[in-house]
Amino acid sequence: MSDPLQVTHLGLIDYQQAYRRQLETVDEVRAGAPSQLLFCEHPAVLTLGRMTKPGTVLWSPEQLEKAGVQLVKVDRGGDVTLHAPGQLVVYPIVDLNRYGRDLHRHLRLLEDVAMAVLRRFDIEPRREPGQTGVWVGPDKLVSIGIGVKRWITYHGIGINVNTDLSLFRMIKPCGLNVEMSSISHIIGRNLDMNDVMAKVRDEFFRVYADNKGVYHGTRNAA
Amino acid sequence: MVRVTLPELGEGIAEATVACFHLKPGDPVNVDDDVVEVVTDKATFNVASTAAGRIAETFVAEGDQVPVGAALFSVSDS
What CA–CA distances, in Å, run from A126 to A6, A146, B12, B39? Predict the structure, then answer.
């Protein structure tokens, strides 16, 4: 069976530039192109989702400017989040017309992908009841927030791989009183981002291939 | 006059919160133009127009929680 997902590596890329690339890709997918995974990292940037509550950015605008951290309002679900080098950002531009029109199901599948990747590093992840994202012990490691246009998804997942965790002191991540962690913090060494991207790609293909039939109601007939 | 409603967003999703309108009454609109954005959990969803014309009326406001099937806005022919 041919793979319906294409992978594009954007490298270290400005947040707004990557955002424009996502919207272009949404249009391409809408015109019939295969669903895409965009992999990238961003220079330090705080993004404010649609449900951002007052007081979740702890630093003043002056402090952020001095530290060279951008602040951007974005059209994804959720509260404030931080992107920085060492965090693997995955933007799945996925046509949910092909994978089932279910927003919450898509969020759970993204969690499944991230959890499967962490298990490959012998990390035991968990979900937090009532929340979206992936936790390890008391700490949060993966943040998820998506936007959807005509049932095509954009925005996506931030996996803290080698992220400088001290940067999270700027915010209450996702509006929660939670400590953020990273894969490197847990396993005690920095990881090769290419290796992590390969694992994300593999698990994404596996999870979504597993669910395509379910969504189309054809799994039992196959 | 065409009324556009909040579509089914997935299993167990009974309602969503209105985040913002991209267009206002009187604005011209085409089929598939995004008109209003709603939020559920960590997902935003753009509800597009199903008709071309002008936005006639909006029936909900930013911050409102609206049930699936509720009318969000209407589009007039002209």
Answer: 28, 20, 22, 24
